[in-house]
Amino acid sequence: MRWWCSASDANWTWAWRPYVGSWLVVALVAFGYWRGGAFDRTRHRRRKAAAVVGLVLLLAANDWPLASLGAGYLVSAQMVRQVLIVMIAAPLLLYGSPPALGNWIEATARRRRVFGLVSTPVFAIVVSTALIVSVSVPVFTDPMLRTQFGSFVLDFMWITAGILIWLPVQPPRPMVPRLSGVLVIVYLIVVSVAPLPVAFFMTWSDFPIYHTYQLAPRVIGALDANEDQELAAAIFQVAGGLVIWLHITARWVHMSGATRAPRFRGPLVAAQESPR
Amino acid sequence: MIPHEPTRSLPSGRDEAPTRRDVLRSAALGFGSAGLVAALAACGRSSGAATATGDDNRAENLGFYGTVLAEPLAKPTVVFTDTDGRAFDIASRTRGRLALLLFGYTSCPDVCPVHLSTLAATLKRVDGAAADTIVMFVGVDTARDTPRAIADFVHGRDPQFVGLTASPTDIDAALKELHLPSVVIGKPDSTGAYSVGHPSQILAFTPDDLCHIVYPFGTLQQQWATDLPKLLDYRWPAQRPAGAG
User: Fold this and answer.
1) Smallest CA–CA separation between B239 and chain A, in Å?
2) A221: phi > 0 → left, psi -120 to 50 → alpha, else beta; which?
3) What residues in A contact B30, CB-CB < 8 Å?
4) Crossing angle for the helix pair A121-136 and A196-204, nearest 10 degrees?
């Protein structure tokens, strides 16, 4: 049994092949969330649901079949994994993170300083973009995909990039976001544009840029290596962009609602935790 | 004799598991790239992108990504049958042209489809005479490789590809002429499936009607696109083919 996904010379099979490492990582995170109070009764149902969905998506992205397909057969599957981890699972996990995490960060001045630095929008954009572009550079990616350890490093870089991207707008509670209002929307637009050069080269390169996927046994006969790469670029741009724009729309709607809220004269209820 | 490569051999460059040090070196390389985007551009556009497949041996192979043979090979004298049922004499039908010949089988799950897809994609991206390279696929699993099956297999990738078949005896004779090992048909398992061992190299016959160079599995589109025009223009030294008196 393999502990993490990696490229293989074997032909693709639909026989179930779980990765021990993926299950272990998700189990550890879930345990930490549970111990930290992420699923306490006092927590808002939406946050608990976000934590559960985030964990499930993290497992789905790092376990068979998606991880196997992405690590060794189809670059389009790898892009689906990237969108899942960076754009969907990371913000959900931050949204549903246990209060103990935020309290732990805020407990000492040193941790606050470190968190203050990594949650700076400029830092988050520069480092997360560098990570995403690094994971996409063929001279780096191809050899890394060949081993379980290398593939684990790539996935870890994605998770780190995802957390960094969303920290300025979605820090662990009870911490306050660095950005709010229109600045969040501006930040998310910049985030959606920053890694586009990767998609550009995937779309316009004359040949498949990753040797791993070019020489992999075909999973879908009708999808050759060139078409697979074009599909990957589309997923990177369209699916990744769509997720960001859904976030932007949701923020916009929320902002609009917040500006109208004072007009209502209903009874004020003191909530222990904001449902947002 | 050209070494036999089993059907499910690892692609070149993937057959040696890298050590953790290799991985860490790759990581350092990735992080340390001064211009990551520039690096990406270089890899995506360069037709000579560095690969484990051929760069290390290019110097000793006259700058080609394939392996140059010590003695060239003549075209097989066996007359094959094409997918329309007509006789196909390789020597006369490809005279003076650049022609690539590979032996495989239509049920092949990895090497053969990747070879053909790689060549089909490459020929769409090269210009001039290189785009007119003749690609011939001989189906060696005669029980399953019917003319219809071969036609579907090769024309699905490129309608210009030539699908060929012959009797097992003739196929073995052709392989012998080309100094290639014979086909090995495995014993059927309980489901009736069986493996087929066959040479996985592609033989390149240049316009002098000799094969001076063979390409292993793992040759990339970028490498084919670099080599095909060179194969058309390269002046090979006059040599007698292997086995010629």
Assistant:
1) 34
2) alpha
3) 134, 137, 139-141, 144
4) 20
Whole-prediction pTM: 0.81
- Provide ipTM, 2 decimals: 0.77
CA dist A106 and A112 (Å) reads 6
Residues B62-98 have pLDDT tens digits of 999 999 999 999 999 999 999 999 999 999 999 999 9
What is the three-state SS of chain B? CCCCCCCCCCCCCCCCCCCHHHHHHHHHHHHHCCCHHHHHHHHHHCCCCCCCCCHHHCHHHCCCCCEEEEEEEECCCCEEEECCCCEEEHHHHCCCCCEEEEEECCCCCCHHHHHHHHHHHHHHHCCHHHHHCEEEEEECCCCCCCHHHHHHHHHCCCCCCEEEECCHHHHHHHHHHCCCCCCEECCCCCCCCCCEECCCCEEEECCCCEEEEEECCCCCHHHHHHHHHHHHHCCCCCCCCCCCC
Q: Do A209 and B118 touch (CB under 8 A)?
A: no
pLDDT one-digit tens code per residue, A37-96: 999 999 999 999 999 999 999 999 999 999 999 999 999 999 999 999 999 999 999 999
Instruction: Tell me, yes or no, if B32 comes closer than 8 A to chain A by beta carbon.
Output: no
Whether the CB-CB separation of A238 and A199 falls below 8 Å is answered with no
Distance of CA A186 to the CA centre of its chain: 19
B contacts of A204 (beta carbons < 8 Å): 44
Residue A117 distance to chain B (closest CA, Å): 21
Euclidean distance between CA atoms B86 and B147, whole angstroms: 11
